[in-house]
Amino acid sequence: MMEQPVLVNRYGKEVFETPTMDQMRKEHCMCLNCGHMKPSEAGHCEIASRFFEICKEHGTAFILTRCDSWLKKGENDASGTD
Ligand code: SF4
C-alpha cells in the first residue's frame, strides 16, 4: 500500500509528498545518475528539460525508471548529441 502523502513546502510551494519515496530519488532516479543530466550546460538532456518544466509548474518530483537515452556518467555519448 502506498505511503500516505504529507503536505510539505518545497521551493516555496505547498505539495503533497511521500517522504520515503522522496528520500530515494537521489540514489535511484535514472536522470539524477545520467551523463546527459547537465543543467545549465551545453548538451543538457532535452527530455529532462521538458520534465523539469512540469516540475516547476506543479511542484512534482519523480524517480525515472525507464529511458531510451540513459548514459552512464563518465562515458561518451555515441549518438554525437553530447
Ligand atoms: S537521457 Fe533519460 S535518464 Fe538521462 S537525463 Fe535524459 S531523460 Fe533522464
List keywords for this structure.
alpha+beta; two-stranded antiparallel sheet
Question: How would you describe what is shown here?
Answer:
This protein is of the alpha+beta class and 82 residues long. It has a domain at 29-59. The protein contains two helices and two strands. It has helices at 19-28, 46-58, and strands at 6-10, 13-17. Strands 1-2 form a two-stranded antiparallel sheet. Iron/sulfur cluster binds at residues 30-31, 34, 36-37, 45, 47-48, 64, 67, 69-70.
Quick overview:
The protein is of the alpha+beta class.
- Structural class estimated from helices and strands: alpha+beta
Number of E-type strands: 2
Strand content: 5-15%
| Number of helical segments with 4 or more residues | 2
Q: What bound compounds does this protein have?
A: iron/sulfur cluster
Low-confidence stretches: none
The termini sit apart by 40 Å
Order of strands across the widest beta sheet?
1-2
Name the average pLDDT. Answer: 93
Q: SSE order, as H and E?
A: EEHH
Largest sheet: 2 strands, antiparallel
Cα shape: globular
State the share of residues found in helices, binned by percent. Answer: 25-40%
Radius of gyration: 14 Å
